[in-house]
Please model this.
Amino acid sequence: MNHPDVSSTDWWKTGLIYHIYPRSFCSSYGGETGDVPGILSRLDYLEDLGVDAIWTSPFYPSPDVDFGYDISDYLGVDERMGTLSDVDDLISGLHGRGMRLIIDGVFNHCSAEHPWFKRALEGESRDYFIWRDGSRLNNWASAFGGRAWSNLGDEAYFHGFHPRQPDLNWRNPEVVDAVLRVMKTWYDRGVDGFRLDVFNSYIKDVEFRDNPWRRDLLGVIGRVLFPYIGQRHIYDRDRPELLPILKKMRLLCDEKDDRVLIGETLDERFRYEKAHEYCGPERLHLVFNFGLLHSRWGAGRFARSIEAWANSLGPQQWPTWVVSNHDFSRAASRWRFDAEDKKGKLVAMMLCSLRGVPFLYYGDELGMRDLSLSRRQILDPPGRRFWPFYKGRDRYRAPMSWTAQKDAGFGTDSPWLPFSADWRQRNVATQRADPNSLLNCWRTLIALKRKYSVLRWGEMFVSHQKGVLFIRRTLNTSVSLTALNMTRSVRRLHLDTVNGVFSPLFKTDPKARFQKRDLILPGLGGGVWLKERDGIY
Ligand code: TEU
Model:
């Protein structure tokens, strides 16, 4: 809403959304976990970074079986993380600075401690959950391992994740109404949208048919070790009856026209071929596709992944771009950033040049690496269950390092998870003072995306050549060209199509330059150039 050419209704099409894991962002009470006032105390930072909105992972009351994704009260705030009035302050603090708040809507399941489930156990409103005769269960499996059914007496209830996260029965209209009431309550408080956790799992097959087993190696491994990955998830998610529910959610959301719904699609193959089907009018504004997050490093691979997602959506919808989140290894570790974070700068240029909405996971702007944890430090349930084959997600949730002081500026020197190994060097204060830091690179690029209409609204063309990724955007007379050398060696490329003079908006290295129609890029170097079109391009 600070852009001259972005109406408040359209802000989500081109803005950048910063993802905060509240337990790990900043602790204002000096408790082990971060809290809502901690986020509030960092609004200067977020404003200076230039983000349009923040998305907060859950801060609701939770027994912490899945660290907030098991909610025991949808309308409250966990006492370790603050109060409702702190959330009100956060909303007005953000709005006062032209930023917005998107909260996590975890409505596929709740906590077994939620009053709804407690009541169901007492025989009241049992239909809020999914029950089956315990002797006639199907083969559906939990994403956290094992079967998705837990027996209670003669019956069993369904849980797509941990047994302490019973799935809500979305075929019950009372559940739909109850969730919509929750959403309305938060909208009335002033929140600007929801990120919907695994929304494509809300509705399951009405006949509870068995999922077929895969016919490849995963099918074999699945049958023996981890049934979830061995199945084709035809009947436990992506059912057609989901669409009328999304329509209701969208109608409610659209009562105010600048709010946004962002869906997280569950798919163990990470290609999310169905993701585009959930975007659009009467559906969600934005949907995640983690193709890029799961891509290996390389210009060709990135180009293919970007094109597949953008093309599946077409020109009317807006893609999201995610390279890290609280569930998967951070970009810096996965793609093995070099000591100087040259790769990190290429990633920043890529995300800020693509058409659509980049998501920036807290700490990625510093190039934070994954934690390395011993078995006894692991808290995440799948990590505890499958160690050493899978070590859980705690490693991607290290407390943010703000300064080089004793407690990293986090607010306590004994946080719930350890600080990253290199926090004394890699922190906000150090990087803010260094003009060549990754943090300052992100600040500059976010500002460029704000300043140049072509970087927000321009049509996008992606290509690659000799390990260099090109992102070209065009809008009226403007053309931007982002060229990113993903290899370690110098690249000299003859660009036939270049006509007219490109001026650099940002370069990682002064040696990155045009020489007539040749573009020269040092290893792991790149830049963003702009020209006003003069004649045929
Ligand atoms: O994640 C969906 C999900 O199940 C995967 O991303 C999962 O984390 C991965 O396969 C590793 O097991 C959402 C949330 O983002 C996640 O934090 C929650 O645990 C999950 O839903 C259940 O609410």
